[in-house]
Amino acid sequence: MVDAARALGLGVMLGCMVESGLGIAAGAHIASLMDHVDLDGNLLLREDPWPGVEVADGIQLPADRPGLGVGPA
């Protein structure tokens, strides 16, 4: 989809409304392909069922574990 959008001269954004760390971690893997990224939906959850993404100085950082780096709470 990114290639198709670029071929049409369109910008690309990756975002979410409310998403667990599982979705955020998956999105982080392709975030570098985007013009704009808004992946903070997990911060709206009282308890994230798939923790692993960290927030440091206001920036979400992917986990340093294998794969998506998340695990069940």
Describe the structure.
With 73 residues, this protein is α+β, with helices and mostly antiparallel strands. 19% of the residues lie in helices and 16% in strands. The chain has two helices and four strands; from the N terminus they run H-E-H-E-E-E. The strands form two sheets. A two-stranded parallel sheet has the order 1-2. Strands 3-4 form a two-stranded antiparallel ribbon. Helix 2 links the parallel strand 1 and strand 2. The protein is elongated and about 40 Å long. The termini are far apart. The model has no long low-confidence stretch (mean pLDDT 93).
How much of the sequence is in beta strands?
A: 15-25%
Biggest sheet statistics: 2 strands, parallel
**Class based on secondary structure composition and strand pairing:** alpha+beta
Spatial strand order of the main sheet:
1-2
Number of helices: 2
Keywords:
19% helix; alpha+beta; two-stranded parallel ribbon; 73 residues; 2 helices; 16% strand
